[in-house]
Amino acid sequence: MPELPPLPDDPRWRVEHLPLLTAFSFALMMCAASVGFLTSGVPAAFGAVAGVAIVTVSYTMSTLVLAWADTVRPALLMPLGITTYVVKYSLLGVILAFVISSEWQGRSALGWGVVAGVMGWSAVQVWWVARLSRRQ
């Protein structure tokens, strides 16, 4: 077994943004539920919340898998990252195919919830990285 580089003193920096993003996700879910309910009723509210929840689970899973791989062995980042993305997008494809083929009234709101979740998470992560780089 080759000699591995030492682990960082404090590996928590890899996941220290998750509490902020989790709080943001819950706020976004409340907003999405309100907009969905006011525009198309209860099914749209559930659909919008489900869309944001899908993105939240997906991004959190990626973060946790990559943070774990980086602490165990950095050479695992690429294979585990690719495997995680393949699993995530396969599940997302199955979920969206099932929802689109159904007659559920919240299917459009679910799509908009996914879009809002992706845009929101991406924006907050960019803000976090910019904040982190200024701190150092």
Describe the structure.
- There is one protein chain.
- The chain is flat.
- By secondary structure, the protein is mostly helical.
- Helix 1 (18-40) runs antiparallel to helix 4, helix 2 runs antiparallel to helix 3 and helix 2 (42-72) runs parallel beside helix 4 (107-135).
- The mean pLDDT is 89.
- It has helices at 18-40, 42-72, 77-101, 107-135.
Short description:
The protein has 136 residues and is mainly α. The chain has helices spanning 18-40, 42-72, 77-101, 107-135.
Strand element count: 0
General shape:
flat
Number of helices: 4
Cα end-to-end separation: 34 Å
Question: Could you estimate the helical fraction of the residues in percent?
Answer: over 70%
Q: Please report which band the strand proportion falls in: under 5%, 5-15%, 15-25%, 25-35%, 35-45% or over 45%.
A: under 5%
Query: In this structure, how is the largest beta sheet organized?
Result: none
Total of domains: 1
The helix-strand sequence is HHHH
**Overall average pLDDT:** 89
Low-confidence stretches: none
Secondary structure category: mainly alpha
What gyration radius follows from the Cα positions, in whole Å? 18 Å
Protein name: ATP synthase protein I
Transmembrane segments: 20-38, 44-69, 76-100, 112-130
Organism: Couchioplanes caeruleus subsp. caeruleus
Keywords: Membrane, Transmembrane, Transmembrane helix
Q: What are the SSEs and their pairings?
A:
Layout: H1 18-40, H2 42-72, H3 77-101, H4 107-135
Helix pairs in contact: 1-2, 1-4, 2-3, 2-4
Keywords:
mainly alpha; flat; ATP synthase protein I; transmembrane helix; membrane; transmembrane
